[in-house]
Write a structure and sequence with these properties.
Order of helices and strands: HHH
Strand content: under 5%
Largest sheet: none
Number of helices: 3
Structural class: mainly alpha
Shape: elongated
Helix content: over 70%
Distance between the termini: 80 Å
Radius of gyration: 24 Å
């Protein structure tokens, strides 16, 4: 009986490990870990007000890119 429990737990752990590994590889393939500027932005903008200002500035830049139409 004890060997049956050990075999079941070993099989379950291998199955869950395979799921975790496949989820991690899927995340790498789809670029979930490609945010290179995240750490730098956290260091630059410490205050909540500064973070809001940075977000507003980024929205303005994105809006100006959308409005620009070369003729």
């Amino acid at each position: 009986m004890d060997s049956w429990v050990i075999a079941m737990m070993l099989g379950a752990s291998l199955f869950l490990g395979a799921i975790a590994l496949s989820a991690f590889l899927w995340g790498i393939k789809n670029g979930q870990f490609d945010d290179e500027k995240k750490m730098m932005n956290q260091v630059q903008f410490d205050d909540e007000r500064e973070l809001n200002d940075a977000a507003n500035q980024q929205r303005k830049q994105e809006a100006s890119k959308k409005e620009y139409r070369p003729e």
